[in-house]
Amino acid sequence: MATPLLPDSRTEPDGSALIRVLSYNIRSMRDDTAALARVISACDPDLVLIQEAPRFFRWRKKLARLAAASGQMILSGGATAAGPALLCSLRATVERTEDVLLPLTPGLHRRGFATAVVRFGGARLGVLSCHLSLQKDERYDQAGILLDRLAGMGVEHAIAGGDLNERPGGRTFQRLADGLQDCWATAPWGGEYTSTPVQPHQRIDAIFATKGIEVLGCGVPLGHPGITDTDLRAATDHLPVLAALKVPAS
To answer: Which of 17, 24, 67, 153 is a Cys-bridge partner for 240, taking CB atoms 3.0 to 4.6 Å apart?
Structure first.
């Protein structure tokens, strides 16, 4: 049975906005960048929450190339957020952006958040991209910082997404799901597992939304028009998560 299509982006007469949000670990663009751009473009997102954006030599040019090839603009992040980044379509009106570096645990990889506040029509939205630690205690602490950061953005509605390095049964994943809507669990659509593209067997990537946002569908866009299994396997070592969300007018 074919996967039903998610609704297209639009702004409603009451000012609310229906948007598409994509979360994707792109492994520093070390794989097939053309395939990666095709996948992003086919999803037709309004926001792209990236993990493992390029962080070293000419990282800005690499990220700009990907944005241009996939019909997006750079919003924030990259090396300045230790990997997470945000892209957006021209539908977004940008209020502000901030790259956040998290406390560094000696011997572990530096982590950070790429954040922004944007508007679509009359809907105002906080956005955060994250890539949480491989170490369980640090990861749990980072989830708490994430929730505090969303609460402190001065917006009624917000989304967060990324590579959690943990399955839904883990305490960090559950901490986020207790405070936010786990979009896949709320309105499952497409595929569930995000790792690995060759043998999907676990869901470690997710999109979360605050309670007032209506989740219309969320999952891996398997069988989505313009997306092939070949491109998904070639693009990177994770599968993307795509969500359709209705954000009330502020």
So the answer is: 24
Half-sphere exposure of 202 (CA within 13 A, CB side): 14
Pairing of strands 158-163, 123-131: parallel
Q: Are 242 and 220 in contact (CB under 8 A)?
A: yes
State the number of CA atoms in the 13 A half-sphere of 118 facing the CB: 25
Strands (E), 38-186: 47-51, 73-77, 85-88, 93-101, 112-120, 123-131, 158-163, 181-182
Kindly report, residue by residue over 184-205, the tens digit of the pLDDT: 999 999 999 999 999 999 999 9
DSSP state of 136: H
- Residue 207's H or E segment, with its range, is strand 205-209
Is the N-terminal amide bond of 196 cis, ω within 30° of 0?
Answer: yes
Rounded CA gap, 145 and 131, in Å?
13
pLDDT tens profile 151-169: 999 999 999 999 999 999 9
Helix (H) or strand (E) holding 36: helix 33-43
